[in-house]
Amino acid sequence: MTKKAPDFDAVVVGAGFAGMYMLYRLRELGLSVRVFETGADVGGTWYWNRYPGARVDTETMFYSYQFSEELQQEWDWPERYPSQADLHKYACHVADRFELRPDIQFETRVDSTAWDEEAGFWRVETGDGASTTARYCIMATGCLSAVNYPEFDGLDDFAGETYHTAHWPDGGVNFTGKRVAVIGTGSSGVQSIPVIAEQAAALHVFQRTANYVIPSRNRPMEPEEVAEIRANYPELRARAKKSFSGNYFPVAGPSALAISKEERDREYEARWAHGGLVFMAAYADFQTSDAANETASEFIRNKIRGIVDDPEIGELLAPKQAFLCKRLCVGTDYYETYNRDNVSLIDISERPIDRITPEGVCVDGQVYEVDVLVLATGFDAVTGALKRIDIKGMDDLKLRDKWEDGPRAYLGLGVAGFPNLFMITGPGSPSVLTNMIPSIEQHVDWITACIEHMRSHDKIRIEPEAEAEKSWVNHVNEVGDLSLRATCQSWYFGSNIPGKARVVLPYSGGFPVYVRKCDEVAANGYTGFALD
Ligand code: N01
């Protein structure tokens, strides 16, 4: 008896940059594809994160797709770091240019998906009550998409307006004349605080951990530099792929300790003046040597002390943890904002927020009365979006149960016990430690080639072998523990979410090493995967 064919060859969950490119590539293979997207439009992260000041902190001509030469030649990026609005416009352009929209069902959340071993396909249940079947289920759900709503007592009783930076209302928020509280000083807080401060009557910033913030030096793109990048795109992209983070950041030397303080400080000054993430690559031993790391930490702390007028506030803003232990922030006028009369900084590192009252935020018995509460409290990173979907594999095994003590996945691409399920930038891949779009493209290309291989070899089922998965996870953990990142609390280790297992989430061995491993696996007939 012939088996019933599934509705689609593949279901893709999410229409951000990963889901859109996955759809494009699978359609090229001739597969029938349905993409489900919770939002009303494409863009994923750059659809939802509309908070004031939101812009990417990777140089934009490289934070973009490279799969189409025409696309990268024709698109005009207005600024060194484009705003959320520009990134969303770009995502819309890609969707229209490649006619992706007809295969995307918007405003449809995937609630659950279960593998039917007998039928050999996934059954995907969506919020509209429909059930769809597909041979492959591909999770393009994003690493920073599951919002972290803090569980403050009394949050629901707050009488004013409450917003989370990652779920910002479409029409924006008018802060004029209002008293505002921002909770959180990660990248989202750092970008939104200066913009809110310009509008608000009063702004109280609640800081649990001070972060290192490098000035962005954002500016319009000059026509000559655009022309030069466009003329050399293939070479520049290839160079970036050989770099640890998938971004080309020139390294000044192997060790910050191998040169004099004068020489080192000249290098740091130059990078501070240039602005952006390039600062993090100054010396190769920031992640491995406390003493080298401290040279950069102290340089930035001194910059902060020099910018902020009030020495006490300057000291509070000077980070205590190692440089790069948490994700580096890039901002515009961040530290300068604390010199404004309408801005105050409340240190909650030792005395946490007691509760939210109808009037405002209560710390140590004192209520800071506000009209608007902004939660810049981040995400349940890397695994959150996947665990919020009820994913059931072989023998009714649930992904969220399998991952209770931390994620276990092979190369961040597949999970033992979950046949024909692929993840784009899943846990155990370099993802958030790299330029996301090249990492997305690498995964999508790998998955496409894998499906093509299966089709040409008459295979219909693929699943990571338990042993291969185990040894990759061990490797990811070993490498993760070697870096200074392991020494502090951060979302890289899941430690921003109460109750989440403390396990390193991205692979920190670097983009080139990882890509080589993925390529070897494919070239050797998908070693570590069982194909039937
Ligand atoms: O989130 P975060 P984010 N009580 O987790 C605090 C990317 N991104 O949205 O550090 C009090 O970094 C928390 O304090 P602590 C980028 O990769 C990129 O800002 O945990 N405070 C922290 O200060 C980034 O790293 C861009 O002690 C609480 C803040 O909230 C990632 O997204 C822009 C709290 C959360 O910071 C996440 O950034 C934006 C509590 N209960 C984001 N819970 C660009 O490209 C949390 N906090 C520029």
Which class of the largest domain in CATH terms? Alpha Beta
CATH superfamily label of the largest domain: FAD/NAD(P)-binding domain
Basic shape: globular
Low-pLDDT stretches: none
The number of helices is 16
CATH topology category name of the largest domain: FAD/NAD(P)-binding domain
The biggest sheet, with number of strands, parallel, antiparallel or mixed sense and barrel status, is: 8 strands, mixed
CATH architecture assignment name of the largest domain: 3-Layer(bba) Sandwich
- What's the number of domains? 2
The fraction of residues assigned to DSSP E strands is 15-25%
Rg result = 23 Å
Please give a handful of descriptors for the protein shown:
five-stranded parallel β-sheet; 32% helix; 16 helices; 532 residues; globular; alpha/beta; FAD/NAD(P)-binding domain; eight-stranded mixed β-sheet; single chain; binds 3-acetylpyridine adenine dinucleotide
Describe this structure as you would to a colleague.
The chain is of the alpha/beta class. It has two domains: 8-147 and 381-527, 3-Layer(bba) Sandwich (FAD/NAD(P)-binding domain), CATH 3.50.50.60; 155-224 and 242-375, no CATH class. It is 32% helix and 17% strand. It has helices at 17-28, 45-48, 69-74, 84-97, 187-199, 223-231, 233-241, 261-274, 290-307, 311-317, 334-337, 384-387, 399-402, 436-456, 466-482, 511-523; strands spanning 8-13, 33-36, 104-105, 110-116, 121-126, 131-139, 161-164, 179-183, 202-207, 213-215, 329-331, 343-347, 353-356, 360-363, 366-369, 372-375, 390-392, 421-423, 462-464, 529-531. The strands form five sheets. Strands 1, 2, 3, 4, 5, 6, 17 and 18 form an eight-stranded mixed sheet that branches. Helix 1 (17-28) runs parallel beside helix 14, helix 9 packs antiparallel against helix 10 and helix 14 runs parallel beside helix 16 (511-523). The longest helix has 21 residues, at 436-456. The chain is globular. The mean pLDDT is 97. 3-acetylpyridine adenine dinucleotide binds next to helix 5.
